[in-house]
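Progress report, Aim 2. The chain analyzed during this reporting quarter is listed below.
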Amino acid sequence: MTIAVTGSIATDNLMRFPGRFSEHLLAEHLQKVSLSFLVDDLVIHRGGVAGNIAFAIGVLGGDVALVGAAGDDFVGDYGKWLQAHRVNTDHVLISKSAHTARFVCTTDQDMAQIASFYPGAMSEARNIKLADLVSSIGKPDLVIIGANDPDAMVVHTEECRKLGLPFAADPSQQSKTGWSEADVMGKVGLRVTTLGAKGVDIVDRDGSTVHVGVVPETSLTDPTGVGDAFRAGFLTGRSGGLSLERSAQLGSLVAVLVLESTGTQEWTWDAAAAKTRLADAYGDDAAAEIATVLA
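Predicted structure tokens for the chain:
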């Protein structure tokens, strides 16, 4: 099952603040916020919603194509990194004038975050045609419409409908619809809602719900990219024929591996350790079923 992942490709600049943002945000002064935080760490990593998801699917052994826009700085280190992890990068548009997007984020000791995002080359993603992807590799089994240039998200969605490509809408921080829960369920066949430390809810159109708890973490290092990791694990599980519950359990494991790492693509996969953690969290049967897909 080929998964085409559209969305942002970025460089992450991650900083750590050894205090709490909440202690500096005063309710009576929120109308004029002017704050400066002295951070004690800075790391620069590869990132972006689509880059993170594609990387994780590749690591898990899935068939994945990355579709997005980046600067010419992507061609060397980042592009080769993804290719080395089984990601097809042939359909990344390289801008002639803009740098790869940049995500700048500060995380405090409570895992709260303050972030900014510079789109850069991502703004050119609206010029990408999914028809070119189809001509090259055939119809993907699923297209992820991830957080991206807003116009690109609309263009990709319309093109999926035109070409008859199944797609998953994943607007993330890029969209506020104003729809009620009933409105959302009237438009989608399946809704997946991640709940942080409370796990994930999967709701079918008929209202049936599957809830999956988290895999316990060994450390809380950085939450950046945790949602992307869950998506990758969940989609890899589904592409391998796992049930919704088992796919969400795999997604939860990949998510915690990212939570325990600094950087969204700095985690490593150890099949034996993964099976043990899955068994501890969900039982031996769950671990065995998931392991057969990943083998």
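The two ends are 15 Å apart (CA to CA). DSSP finds nine helices and twelve strands in the chain. These observations will guide the mutagenesis work planned for the next reporting period.
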